[in-house]
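Note to self: user wants both folds in one dump. Writing first protein now.
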Amino acid sequence: MIRLGQISYINCEIFNYPIKKLLKSAEYSSLGIHVIEGVPSHLNNLFLAGEIDVAPISSFAYLGGDTKLLKKLSISSFGKVQSVLFFINEDMAEIKAKLDSGTRHKIYLSSESASSVALLKILLKEKYLFNLQNLDFISFSGEGRDLPNKLLIGDLALKELCRGRESYYKRTLDLGEEWFDFTHGLPMVFGVWAHRLKVQDEKRVQELILTAKTMGLNQDFNEIVERVHLQTGLSQQVLRNYYQHLNYDFTDEHSRGLALYGEKLSGSLRLQADSL
């Protein structure tokens, strides 16, 4: 039995829906795959504990250990990602001025993704020159309604973004776009496909997931958009725009972006993010 993890966010339906179809086919049913779903942080923990064999895990978790990757696969963006968002009611310059004066400030972070937490801290420190010592980072779960600011990821982030003028928040920082600007054009790799498969299984699982990606981005795409629309209530136009901002490849550019992200993860940032 091969235990395969699936992220239960709509950004991964490009993989998830075709995989379910393929596993019912004669070509792949013999693989004996058991699917386990969860949010990124949960899958990270299951993979690192040896309780699943292959899964999309966060870049943060991958960089923290000795892990093998499936080729040509990621969850990334070149610019806006629309589902890793920092919602605020103040200008970043106003917050920095308060920090520089010694005033402490609270930042609220989703507990569902260590990669995004670490990315926000990198950007606050290196792009916006915040003194992190004067920041109190507080973890929360769910929507975090009416918090003064919040880092949201996944479906909840996209839904909050779609509230537009009805949102409680005046400003939104898209961390994919922020990273792209900060690195002068490198993609942000939010997740990679990690595995601990036997050699004979690796090739077949790699083939399965690459085939699913091709199907999800082509012949199954309209059906995926329709299904997600019915599940979430998000308009098909919003969903098509969202998927167009995502990238599921892993090229040399992705490798450089991932390596730079790893370099920016100082010991203190890693420790703070890993504690959530």
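First done. Writing the second protein, which came from a different request thread.
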Amino acid sequence: MTTVIYIIRHAEAEGNKYRIFHGTSDSDLTPNGLLQARKAAEALMELGIEKIYASDLKRAYKTARIFSDMSGIGITISKALREIDGGLWENKTWRALEDIFPEEYNTWENMPHNHRMPSGESMEELQKRAYEELERIAVADPGKTVAVFTHGTFIRVLLCKLTNRPFDQLINVKWHENTAITKIVYDNGKFSMEFEGNYDHLDLSMATVYNQDWIRKQED
């Protein structure tokens, strides 16, 4: 039986807005993030979703909760959907990270497949966790359409695998906008992707990643 999975990045959180690294740190949504989450929930209402999964971290759970309240569907919490454990990077600004951890910052920016957080998770470990959890959800909900609310780096490493890229091509997997929606289909033990990173439900003035300088520099 076919399982349809919509993967949603959480709405704008304090770390996104103020450029502070929050992996497992439990930052809250911003006022703009609450608006993004409502817009995403309205779009998700049209997709026939029957079950909701969410990371237990506040920014993902609260994004899911807005859709849950709108749809009347309960939320199944999964710690396996958490963002990468940033170890010593947690709660530091991106500007400070470049100064304090120059070697690790270089791998993050230029060789992310080799990156390991100091006293935290590696990208390879995160990809293994992400794929195993997505597969567990797919197998647990045959024939259903489910929504999975999770995090940016989690989605990035997962899509690297789902699109059959070698892991050293992780650098070519784009960051998703906050509340961007990706559609995955699981059938006969295999995943396929129908679309990724759609955020048509947001006005561009409301978008987070799109309006930040760091992403523009990466795309130049």
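Dump finished. Worth passing along: The domain at 3-125+134-156+163-183 is CATH 3.40.50.1240 (Rossmann fold).
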